[in-house]
Amino acid sequence: MATVGIVGAGVAGLHLGLALRAADVDVTLYTEHPLEDLAGARLLNTVAHHHPMLERERALGVHHWPAEEYGYAAHHHYLGGAEPVRFTGHFTNPSCAVDHRLYLPRVAADLADRGAKPVVADIGPRDLARLGAQHDLVVVASGRGPLSGLFARRPEHCPHDAPRRLLCAGLYTGVRAPEPAGVGISVAPGHGELLEIPILSRHGPVTALLLENEPDGDLAGLASLPYDDDPARFHRAVLDALAVHHPATRERVEEREFALTHPLDLLQGGVIPAVREDYLPLGDEKFALALGDAHVVVDPVMGQGANLAAYSAAVVAAEIVTDTVYDEQFCLRVARAREEVLLAGSAWTNLMLDPPPRIPELLRALAADQRRADEFTTNFDHPDRQWRLLATPRRQREFLAGDRAEGDRRTTWSIQRSAAPY
Fold it and tell me: What are the residue boundaries of the Styrene monooxygenase StyA putative substrate binding domain, all occurrences included (predicted)?
């Protein structure tokens, strides 16, 4: 029986472990801290899980928060400027957002119940050779701390060496939900974006506001504005930002009720997007395979991070259970199997971080075409499909021209990957 050591207990590591245990593969999960400690930790992210990821959760038996009850099925777009534009796109199937401080400990408990061996240890690069001697394969699913940068960047897929957005994410009360329930995506040209996300937290259903601020824009200071020193000043700064740059959200705020749900429900900083090498040798014909944030990191502006991680974990699990030798040939096969979706998710996100003039043109065209607005929205589930539509000006023109019937396009895209369809 194969034995796999997984370093990191985020979405990627947990989903991989669950899929491997379902195939009776021996799994040891290495975590820096006990996951139950997350309940009292600072906000980790404001991620949404899209339909393909929810389907994987159902298959793995960890879909504890049904999208039919906790989810949403629309994106409400606002493009600011001299002539503001609004439109709504509808998903074919709902998405769902759950605070990962609830999600990760619950899923980790499921994994432990199914026989994975949890080990709390501070694993660094020098420990990987030792793990390689203990396991047939080591999978590094953590891109933080001492393992940050372990796998070399692939320059051709890394256009940024610094954060393109300065982030200010928090959970708030006092924001009335849009109709129908959905995520708000507001674009303030030259200043950044706002993602307004209905999310289930320890406080119940609340609203996550993720302000993605351009470093040279009016709102950049929100990423470093302290909350604890003067909560009222912080709240006023956020409200002012919404009023000036994201009015589609501000108009639904009840000012007297608007507040951060807890001082720890705030996350500020930035993300450096990166695509890294798929694997590295550990000696003695053993290898470490990159997964999740150790492999591909995207800015959260398009909501792809956890979804790409879950997809990649499914591909890796499928390759592990259909092989018995985890050598370089195995690593190269994994790289080929997952590359299209992961690179598409990264490239699409980077395009939206540095949008050429054709992107505002796209949004204005979608506002006048409900069918394509819905297709664009549903393709948040499928970044490879989205990238095929938007990768070049010609492809975008073809998408908007709509000369091909929608049925023809869907038929082309219905071909499923045998290992792990996105």
Answer: 143-252
